[in-house]
Design goal:
Helix content is 43%, strand content 20%. The protein is α+β, with helices and mostly antiparallel strands and 138 residues long. It folds into two domains: 33 residues, no CATH class; 76 residues, 2-Layer Sandwich (GMP Synthetase, Chain A, domain 3).
Length: 138
């Protein structure tokens, strides 16, 4: 029967480190002083949060800027363009929201084809793309 472990939220980080890697031993690192294991663990668990906070206050990534620039050139009458890297900053997937007069009287699929054509070269390096298009309301 497999043993079940439960780490209560109020348990200290040392208990979690011990549960994950055994008493003061980490794979491939050998014996580790408990205080250094706790310090390393407490820093590592915060990295995703720190990255999210950084992205919240940071300007656009290089990829976002590049895609935005291409869209501004291809859709000069656009009233709104928002490009967001939704792959965590690596440039593999973007979400694009664009509002432009050029989409007037075109079906959604045609609008998306226009965006895909405009980003033909950039799409070659992407894994995915979410496109939201609209026509400005007057």
């Amino acid at each position: 029967m497999a043993s079940q472990h439960h780490i209560a939220p109020q348990q200290p980080a040392a208990a979690l480190v011990e549960w994950l890697w055994g008493p003061a031993q980490w794979p491939a690192l050998g014996p580790v002083a408990p205080c250094s294991a706790i310090a390393l663990f407490s820093v590592l668990w915060q990295l995703p949060l720190l990255y999210c906070v950084h992205r919240l206050f940071a300007s656009q990534t290089e990829g976002e800027l590049q895609v935005t620039q291409v869209l501004r050139e291809k859709f000069p009458r656009a009233t709104a363009i928002k490009v967001t890297d939704i792959s965590g900053g690596c440039g593999a997937m973007y979400e694009i929201k664009i509002e432009s007069e050029e989409f007037k009287e075109k079906r959604t699929v045609q609008q998306h084809q226009m965006v895909n054509q405009a980003l033909k070269e950039e799409i070659k390096g992407m894994h995915g793309l979410r496109i939201f298009t609209s026509v400005p309301k007057h």
